[in-house]
Amino acid sequence: MFYEALIRIYVFAIFIAAKSGNDKAKKWLKGRKNWRNILTSIPKNATLFHCASLGEFDQAVPLIREWTLKFPENKVIVSFYSPSGMEHYQKRGVHVDAVCYLPLDTAQNMKDFLSILSPQRLLLIKYEFWPNLIREASLKNIPIFSVATILRPNQVYFKWYGAFFRTEMRKIARFFTQNEETNELLKGIGCDHVLCVGDTRYDMVLSRKSTRISDVKLDNFMKGRRAIILGSSWEKEELILKTSLKFLRNETIIIAPHEVTELSIGRIKKLFPEAICYTEGNLDSSKNILILDTIGQLANAYAHGFMAFIGGGFHGGLHNILEPAVYGLPVCFGPKHTKFPEAKAFITHGFSQEIHSAEDLINFINSTKSNQDKKQEEISAYVQRQQGAALKIVNQFS
């Protein structure tokens, strides 16, 4: 079968990458060793949520919370495709009964995977449409649902060569989608059981804000100041901010890199030699630039911002703009954001701006300051109105 041949070529490529020193590839392979034996200790007859990685898990978290409230006796299992989910899911503060890696999507693997776990139902987050997983679940009469689904016309499912994937997708009992465009795309390929409920990540960021624990160290450093926050930055955003500095006199700046590594922190310190790092000990509040050289502080730091410049928009992988928006922060980002409907919505409502240069960034900062309080109120109110997707989904189950 052509698909299975591609899958095996794919895993061979991962094997070569691991041999070449790629850390993520090494973790991918190591995590799947003896997976059948590992699964035998996991609770059976549970609801299985499958997420690609940590980002998709963020969309599952509010749903899992609502699920466990409505069905407290039902066990919850989460499977991940990427090591990032397995390594960091605990930081989201939601209880799950077990986690595991999803094995390679071959027919035999998925037959064994589902036979060992025997889940009551399968919930696929966003667009995790693994054909053999779906086929084997269908053969075993395991109900399949797609949650927080969001699709684009240029994806393989809607191409002339995507018939194989479309056949399997039609076996999904229901799609709970993020927008009406996705509904129409699904109906166009014969998936008629669709319900638009919105994006569960709004529930996620609102919950995180309501349970936020104050960071005393950061609070003392800020001392009532408001910062420009460079969130999940890549080198391109850092260079734009550096160029803008001479026009940003006395501004407080917090920088949180996309990857917290010695290489990335070293790069930022060269660009901003006057900066101090979060892990240095007591933070000198006379300094104006702080580097968050630790994982997990960024969402908390947004509470101290007045605007945010979000990374990934020059690479096509825009990071989470809802985390700053929940605090009412206007956000800006690079031009490659078409995969993210929330970015389009924020631009349409005047909450965000596309950035190409240092001049664009300076103009955005100045315009943000001119009506700061009103804009923050508008953004906060908009985010508040988007909540409730998780509860809408859970209420469809009995």
Give a description of the structure.
With 398 residues, the chain is an alpha/beta fold. The protein has two domains: 32-196, 3-Deoxy-D-manno-octulosonic-acid transferase, N-terminal domain (Rossmann fold, 3-Layer(aba) Sandwich), CATH 3.40.50; 213-385, Rossmann fold. Helices cover 44% and strands 16% of the residues. It has 19 helices and 14 strands. The strands form two sheets. Strands 3-2-1-4-5-6-7 form a seven-stranded parallel sheet, with helices on both faces. Helix 5 links the parallel strand 2 (76-80) and strand 3 (98-101). Helix 6 packs across helix 7. The longest helix is centred in the N-terminal third of the chain and has 18 residues, at 2-19. It starts with a helix and ends with a helix. The relative contact order is 0.10. The mean pLDDT is 95.
Strand order of the largest sheet: 3-2-1-4-5-6-7
What are the segments in which pLDDT stays under 50 over at least 5 consecutive residues?
A: none
CATH topology of the largest domain: Rossmann fold
- Note the beta-strand portion: 15-25%
Radius of gyration: 22 Å
Which descriptors apply to this entry?
44% helix, 14 strands, seven-stranded parallel β-sheet, Rossmann fold
Question: In terms of topology, how is this protein built?
Answer:
Elements: H1 2-19, H2 23-31, H3 35-39, E1 47-51, H4 54-70, E2 76-80, H5 83-88, E3 98-101, H6 107-117, E4 121-125, H7 131-139, E5 144-149, H8 163-169, E6 174-177, H9 180-187, E7 194-196, H10 200-210, H11 216-222, E8 227-233, H12 235-244, E9 252-257, H13 262-271, E10 276-277, E11 289-291, H14 298-301, E12 305-310, H15 322-325, E13 331-333, H16 341-348, E14 352-354, H17 358-370, H18 372-385, H19 389-394
Parallel strand pairs: 1-2, 1-4, 2-3, 4-5, 5-6, 6-7, 8-9, 8-12, 9-11, 10-11, 12-13, 13-14
